[in-house]
Amino acid sequence: MTAEEIIQTIRSQFGEAVKASEVKGVEARMDVERGKSYEVLVALKGMGLDYLNCISSVDRIASGELEAVYNLSSLNEPAKAMVRVRVPREDPVVRSVVPLWSAADWHEREAYDLMGIRFDGHPDLRRILTSEDWVGHPLRKDYQDERLVPYEPA
């Protein structure tokens, strides 16, 4: 299945839930609305994109959003997909994909710990890199910690 076919299939099934899409080489890239993200990921897995490479997160502070980014690939074909899901900073919740890919467990915990994205339905959503009593999420662009000394160029 080509990247173009992946996008065409997902767009035909989910319509307006796919906010934007593009093809980069063998990779289908899609921006998907939060409410349909889980269903889109289920469909992609059913299309043979059965390997979860990574879940990462992005702070889009200028737009007031955080973003969960899912990188998927096929173990049998060269096809890949990147699915971006934006969530508002004041309500950063997206559905957990641990039921689809058990490897998502630690990826989701890291995105929660460092960016504050909560994954609804995660079996054990707690901090993974910082201590349990840590305040805030250190990869957010507006994160402040009195222990950090701001960089001031000479």
Can you summarize the main beta sheet? 5 strands, mixed
> Structural class of the secondary elements?
alpha/beta
Order of helices and strands: HEEHEEEEHE
CATH architecture of the domain at 3-95: 2-Layer Sandwich
CATH fold-level topology of the domain at 3-95: Beta Polymerase, domain 2
Q: How many angstroms separate the termini? A: 54 Å
What's the total helix number? 3
The count of DSSP E runs of length 2 or more, i.e. the number of strands, is: 7
The rounded Rg comes to 17 Å
Give the C-level CATH assignment of the domain at 3-95.
Answer: Alpha Beta
Question: Judging from the principal axes of the Cα atoms, what is the shape?
Answer: globular
Outline the low-pLDDT stretches: none
- Into which percent range does the helicity of residues fall? 10-25%
Task: Going across the biggest sheet, name each strand in turn.
Answer: 1-2-5-4-3
* Strand percent estimate: 25-35%
**Overall average residue pLDDT:** 94
What is the CATH H-level superfamily of the domain at 3-95?
NADH:ubiquinone oxidoreductase Nqo5 subunit
